[in-house]
Amino acid sequence: MADFECKNSNLGVFEPGNLKVQTIKVKKSDSSPPPPTQLYIVAPVSEGTYPLLLFCHGYCVQNSWYSQLLHHISSHGYIIVAPKLYKCMLIALNNEVKTAAKVTDWLCTGLRSVLPQKVQPDLSRVALSGHGRGGKIAFSLALGHVPTSLKFKALLGIDPVACRNPPTWPEPEILTYVPRSFDLSIPVGVIGTGLGNQPKCMMPPFAPNGINHAEFFNESKPPCSYFLAMNCGGYDMLDESKAALASLVCKSGKGSKALMRKGVGGIVVAFLMAYLGGQDDDLKAIVDAPTIAPITLDPVIFVKE
């Protein structure tokens, strides 16, 4: 089977939603109170109150490099806030989780002032997500390593990866290698990639076994779900040009990455619909029949209790 083989899908979650969305780039000087860092926000422009997703970007990438994926998700009726977690893409400091926590607190007081007119965030329905190292930051924040004023309703890691914590890498350490050890009472979803644990030429894998998506799922308590995008790489959900750039140093699936973005976007939307909206038909459909997705998902696991 070729990488990114196209399949027929009857699920609308894998296609852009019906809502027109707007990109909002917020600097510290653009809002009062000012956000603790620069923000990349995608929100519907139609009047309404929408659930909120806080998205943490991965290591060595920018928050804006996910624009196509975030637009897909937002067009189904979600406000997405993606903070810039550190100034230099090649340097990660110990304040990433603290920055994400400060942004979470800012949402209560500052978000409404930067959104389109008559667009309101529903702060009672907030989910947390992150990609790569940002997935670890999302898990760390959900686990309460830094307290926040908002409570998260759901957590979704997109190819999350920890590190083996040599002296130059930042804390916190969250993996315990004990099944179901994460002290979380909210639904957890994990999307993994089948190529992330493979090297690229002389470059080591970006998500080696033992610190990648499989371990994050293993340590999650029910209800938890797991989707492995078998023929995809860890950066294939980035915007097309950025994914092509990343493929120079990390293993990548063949062909256009549009189907990967559709696949990940659809899973995220189905997960949010289930746990922020109480509509779990699409999530159940993907779990019961993974071949309806536009990418090869194998395995798909759902643990209810």
Helix tally equals: 7
Which stretches are poorly predicted, pLDDT < 50 over at least 5 residues?
1-10
Strand fraction: 15-25%
Q: What structural class do you assign from the helix and strand content?
A: alpha/beta
N-to-C span: 34 Å
The major pleated sheet works out as: 9 strands, mixed
What is the C-alpha radius of gyration, as a whole number of Å? 18 Å
SSE succession: EEEHEHEHEEHEHHHE
Coarse shape: globular
| Percent helix range | 10-25%
Mean pLDDT: 91
**Strand line-up across the major sheet:** 1-2-4-3-5-6-7-8-9
Number of strands: 9
What is the element layout, followed by pairings?
Blueprint: E1 21-26, E2 39-44, E3 48-56, H1 67-74, E4 79-83, H2 96-110, E5 119-131, H3 133-142, E6 154-158, E7 188-193, H4 213-218, E8 224-229, H5 240-246, H6 258-276, H7 281-288, E9 297-303
Parallel strand pairs: 3-4, 3-5, 5-6, 6-7, 7-8
Antiparallel strand pairs: 1-2, 2-4, 8-9
Characterization of the model:
By secondary structure, the chain is α/β, with parallel strands linked by helices. It has helices spanning 67-74, 96-110, 133-142, 213-218, 240-246, 258-276, 281-288, and strands at 21-26, 39-44, 48-56, 79-83, 119-131, 154-158, 188-193, 224-229, 297-303. It has a nine-stranded mixed β-sheet, with helices on both faces. Strand 3 (48-56), helix 1 and strand 4 (79-83) form a beta-alpha-beta unit. Helix 1 (67-74) runs parallel beside helix 6 (258-276). The chain is globular, with a radius of gyration of 18 Å. Residues 1-10 have low confidence and may be disordered. This is Chlorophyllase-2, chloroplastic-like.
